Amino acid sequence: MSFKMLKVATLTGTENEDQSKMGNTMKKTYLAYAIALSCSAITSAHAAPLQQAQTEQTEAEAKQDESLEEVITIGYRDSVKRAVQQQRESGGIINVLKKDDMGKLQDDSVSDALQRIPGLSVERDQGEGRFIRIRGLAPDLNSVSYNGTVLAAPEAGRRAVALDVIPSDLLESIVVNKTLTPDIAAGSLGGNIELKSMTAFDREGSFYSIGADIGYNQQASETNPKVSGVFSNTFDLGGKKDSFGVAFAGSHQERSFTTDNVETGGGWDFDEPGLEEFEHRAYAVTRERTGLALNLDYRPSDTSEYYFRSLYSEFADTEIRQGLITEFADPQLQDATGAGEIARELKDRKETQEIKAFVLGTEQTVGEWQLTLEAGTSEAGESQPFAIGGAKFVQEFDDGLGFSGVKKLELLAPDTAYQAEGYELDEVEVSNAETEETEKNVKFDLAYDWLQPSYQATFKFGGKVSQREKTAQEDIYIYSDFEDLGVTELTLADYQSGPVDYGLGTFGPGIDAGALWQLLEPFDRDDFYDEVESRIASYGIEEDITAGYFMFDVGFNQWQVIAGARYEHETRTANGSRYNDETETFTPEYAKFSDSSWLPSVVARYDVSDATIVRAAFSTGLVRPSFEQVRPSYFLENDDGDLKAEFGNPELESLTSTNLDFGIEHYNEALGVVSVMLFYKDIENFVYEADVAGRPGYEAFDEAVTFINGDDAHLYGLEFNLVHELKGFNSWLDNVLVSTNVTLTDSEATVDWLDDGELQTRDIPLPSQSDTTANVALGYENDVMSLRLAANFKSEYLAELGDVEDSRYDIIEDDNLTLDFSAKWMVNEYVNISFAANNLTDEPYYVYTGQRRYNAQYESYGRSFTLGIQLINW
Predict the structure, then answer these.
(1) Sign of the C-alpha dihedral, residues 575, 579, 583, 586?
(2) DSSP 8-state secondary structure symbol assigned to residue 72
(3) Which of 457, 472, 570, 837 is most buried when burial is the number of CB atoms within 10 A of its CB?
(4) Does Secreted count among this protein's keywords (predicted)?
(5) What is the model's pLDDT at position 86?
(6) In sequence order, which ranges of 2-58 are alpha helices (DSSP H)?
(7) Segment 404-445, tens digit of pLDDT
């Protein structure tokens, strides 16, 4: 099999979607070859040469292929076919989700949609998907970009982007790059998640749809509305037909729910032994998601294009948390009682996160040259204006306090523990916090196609300059000693809100936030300012990155090889504060760091036959430490002669990985694929929190907690994927589609510490790495109905090191299995009605300390149901 003289532009992982300017002939010919193949979530890779593509293809064949492109369906199969076409054409090992597939299980956010891709799993907050892990690597070790611009992260201290902030309605597709080619910016070890916006040229002519959903949460007994809309159209401009396109998408959702929680936070003493403290929490949460996207395209000719991409997303999280905190005087065994203290605590806050992104660019083709110029910016922020971070009412008990149960701990206490009169106001903490991050970049890519009778090659190089800035500011106020302030109403009876609705046991009276704000109003807030906590929590970090790359893409016979390297130079400056409690003084902390890295990669593909493909890749990745880890904040105290410190480490090295991938895929003639992918990652400089007291520079310290680079870590695994459409039954079974994927991973890292001057070590798995991640979906679809039942499983994993020196205190997140159902009925070509049921088994969230019988956190969320209607070009 050899190349024909056909101009075909190969696509890398960042140059996906519809790129007609780089080869419409390829697109049409290849569609006929791949239209019946595979699934929307397979492990796939760069395009092979177009075997058997005939340049003498007749006009009739071309028209037939074109008609296939123009068929618009809203079924699952169509989404599968379009996704696999993009995956097979890509230059890197990727997975793709199309817009139609994202909506099948009422995926309100990007994180919900991504959890069913092979090798991906989700970290949840309040039962909702939030952060994404790729192949067992934690969210901070992966990157998220929007049309090529790296998204800023709204949360203080983190690089990971919380993808529940972004509504899935705003996107046309999501591409997960698992192998990083040189034209992808550094910033990940596991992979890059590329969010692709819709454009007017994704559809022919005018298109619009309006959708409305009503949701219901069983545990909260609340209804939750959602509205969304999409509009796109093309217009004649400058004498050229359909040269200007406008696409707009908007979405707004409100969701109210409750969470019942009981947690120890790892508060176990395994030497005494017993439990030191635990807490019951009742959450009432309202979340609002608002998203807007406006995209403009101007194509004055077949060789010239100008475009503008924009994204705005706002996520407002209003939370009222009632807490019942039990602290024992001595570590307490199960079902025993003793002395202690109970605090009733209120947290009342509204936290708003925003993400904005703008990309302005042009793509020009001159002969065999293609030039892309882009300028992009991303802004993210998190604000929490004047919130009650913790208001405590305390009651002491000489005896009678204990606990029973294992996962769901219950309080054993006298009756007075549930009466408001026994609790006295202790303190109220108020905080005002704001975080901002901006990322600005300018880049260019230049490619040259070199076509020969027996092979073709594309040479590509480019450069990028980016600036990133993160600032965090928090003001903390502690109100206490109320009796000295002349307050006479000091018991909970004066501020109670009535009994708390709590599903895991008896809770008792709650705290009224409004009454507390009335209490604080007469006082001058500045008199209660906690300068130490406030200044230590505030910092600023700037990063300047200059990057360049070169790569070539060569195809010959059954082979295609992509190879090259990327160079990145980083300069980082950071500002913070140092506090010495012995002298009660602050001094500015300033740090500067610079580093350079070469990141080579080689990706290869061999077509054994038209149906069987072998893929292999060598690549390198780089992740910079999180802002929390490198911030130059330093707290030093003298605790009765013991010198203790807690601080960030601006000198941390970047994490790097060497990655190997090898796999095989086999397609059948129907909609089906079997694929197996092996992967291995050798990670250097992984970061963990450690006590460095006694080490060089800290010999005089009794405790010095910071972040350090560890020795090498290793991660390896296997991804298996199967998609099969039943055929040959001549019955309803021919409409059944089975999809399953399983990812098996293992990892090892080493942590160390000093014990009496001797260096000790122990091996741990990498945090966030599950041994098993699996998805199973059973679907049925005909001309008017689409049904899908899907299960998502992830095995337990190390969430955090409770104590570097003792594995008994490791915090482990338990196995989790969720079951979701969705249905869609096409009333006619303009109207469809949908229904979804999520978390059908009411799966709780459970985290334990060392062993399953030692609770760290247990939460339940209840089932959720959604009914929706969508109108399309009616």
Answers:
(1) positive
(2) -
(3) 472
(4) no
(5) 63
(6) 24-34
(7) 999 999 999 999 999 999 999 999 999 999 999 999 999 999
3-state helix, strand, coil in the chain (%, to 5): 10, 60, 30
Centroid of chain to Cα 701:
38
Structure tokens belonging to residue 362: 């042009």
d(CA 475, CA 385): 10
- 687: amino acid identity, one letter: V
pLDDT-derived band at 544 (thresholds 50, 70, 90) equals very high
The SS3 of residue 45 is coil
Q: Find residue 745's DSSP bridge partners.
A: 717
Cα 660 → chain centroid: 24
Residues 6+ apart with CB under 8 A from 581: 532, 635, 636, 637, 638
* CA atoms 17, 23, 28, 34: torsion sign: negative
Instruction: State the pLDDT at residue 205.
Output: 86
State residue 29's pLDDT score: 31
Q: Three-state SS for 163?
A: helix
The kind and range of the H/E element at 519 are helix 513-520
3-class secondary-structure state, position 44: strand
**What is residue 55's predicted lDDT score, i.e. its pLDDT?**
35
Structure-token pair, residue 64: 């037939």
CA neighbor of 291 nearest in space, from 124, 165, 105: 165
**Cβ of 205: how many Cβ atoms within 10 Å?**
10
Sheet bearing 94-98, strands edge to edge: 94-98, 171-177, 192-197, 143-146, 149-150
Q: At what angle do helices 24-34 and 59-70 cross, to 10 degrees?
A: 70
pLDDT digit string, tens, across residues 770-787: 999 999 999 998 989 999
Q: Which residues of 745-770 are buried (b: 16+ CB within 10 A; e: fewer)?
A: bebebebbbbeeeeeeeeebbbbbbb
Q: Mean per-residue pLDDT for 786-811?
A: 93
d(CA 83, CA 87): 6
Residue type, 180: L
CA separation for the pair 211, 872 (Å, rounded): 9
Mean pLDDT of 264-279: 96
- Segment (H or E) for 283: strand 274-301
Distance from C-alpha of 819 to C-alpha of 827, rounded to nearest angstrom? 27
Give one DSSP letter per residue of 573-640, joined into a string: EEEEEEEETTTTEEEEEEEEEEEEEEEEEEEEEEESSSSEEEEEEEEEEEEPPPHHHH---EEEEEET
Which stretches does DSSP call E strand in 423-454?
A: 424-451
Q: Choose which CATH entry (3.20.20.240, 3.40.50.720, 3.40.630.30, 2.40.170.20) describes domain 20-872.
A: 2.40.170.20
* Residues 6 or more apart in contact with residue 69 via CB below 8 angstroms: 27, 28, 31
* Nearest Cα residue to 31 out of 65, 77, 80: 65
User: 18 and 200 in contact (C-beta within 8 Å)?
Assistant: no
Task: Count CB atoms within 10 A of the CB of residue 688.
Answer: 20
687-691 and 634-639 beta bridge pairing: unpaired
Rounded-to-integer distance, Cα 602 and Cα 552, Å? 10
Q: How far apart are CA 862 and CA 838, in angstroms?
A: 9
Number of neighbouring beta carbons within 10 Å of residue 712: 14
Continuous H helices in 295-341? none
Count the neighbouring beta carbons within 10 Å of the beta carbon of residue 383. 16
